[in-house]
């Protein structure tokens, strides 16, 4: 995690070391600007209602979350490296921290009226107790589901690549020409899965971030 943070800070330092970026951006500056614009558009699209000043208050936290997860996931694709987000303790701690922060934001903006999200408007009175309990359980499971989703996707993909890589490596060193020829199939599958896992690494950082934006929008605007 410290290595990931170091890489993020180093990249930003290379872009802003002279007090700002270049008029014609280089490759590093283009990457930083692409991430910044992407997250900014995501916040503007998913969080409705408040003015731009209110959205900008939450933007740094969302940008740091997305960048940290993106670098953690991509760093895990390097051979002999370590994938932080494939451990449930890390993803659970991150999701619970953000969930608690979003709940605090909801109480700060609405006070006790924040509990009104448990009962949508127009619900018949006999169904109210059942829906309140259902909405409360659904709300609390948001923190758990976000962490499980990120952990499960990263762990499953890396495990599959590792198993097939070991299988291809074993066949490659068999003292038989048929094993060597047959190894090309698993080898191509490993290469395809590596490309797929690279896409999953980027996608999971995006999914986690967009869910945080949706939960934050619910806390700010209620139903």
Automatic annotation (TrEMBL):
**Annotated localization:** Mitochondrion inner membrane
Q: Does the keyword Transport apply?
A: yes
What are the entry keywords? ATP synthesis, CF(0), Hydrogen ion transport, Ion transport, Membrane, Mitochondrion, Mitochondrion inner membrane, Signal, Transmembrane, Transmembrane helix, Transport
Annotated membrane topology: Multi-pass membrane protein
Q: Does the keyword Zinc-finger apply?
A: no
Return the GO cellular component terms, semicolon-separated: mitochondrial inner membrane; proton-transporting ATP synthase complex
Under the GO molecular function aspect, what terms does this record hold? proton-transporting ATP synthase activity, rotational mechanism
Question: In which domain of life is the source organism classified?
Answer: Eukaryota
Entry-linked InterPro entries: ATP_synth_F0_asu (IPR000568), ATP_synth_F0_asu_AS (IPR023011), ATP_synth_F0_asu_bact/mt (IPR045083), F0_ATP_A_sf (IPR035908)
Signal peptide limits: 1-21
TM ranges are 57-76, 88-108, 114-138, 159-181, 187-216
Protein's job:
Mitochondrial membrane ATP synthase (F(1)F(0) ATP synthase or Complex V) produces ATP from ADP in the presence of a proton gradient across the membrane which is generated by electron transport complexes of the respiratory chain. F-type ATPases consist of two structural domains, F(1) - containing the extramembraneous catalytic core and F(0) - containing the membrane proton channel, linked together by a central stalk and a peripheral stalk. During catalysis, ATP synthesis in the catalytic domain of F(1) is coupled via a rotary mechanism of the central stalk subunits to proton translocation.
Q: What family classification does the UniProt entry report for this protein?
A: Belongs to the ATPase A chain family.
Q: Which HAMAP family match?
A: ATP_synth_a_bact
The protein's assembly and partners: F-type ATPases have 2 components, CF(1) - the catalytic core - and CF(0) - the membrane proton channel. CF(1) has five subunits: alpha(3), beta(3), gamma(1), delta(1), epsilon(1). CF(0) has three main subunits: a, b and c.
NCBIfam families for the chain: ATP_synt_6_or_A (TIGR01131), PRK05815.2-4 (NF004482)
The protein here is known as F-ATPase protein 6
State the organism of origin.
Answer: Rhynchospora tenuis
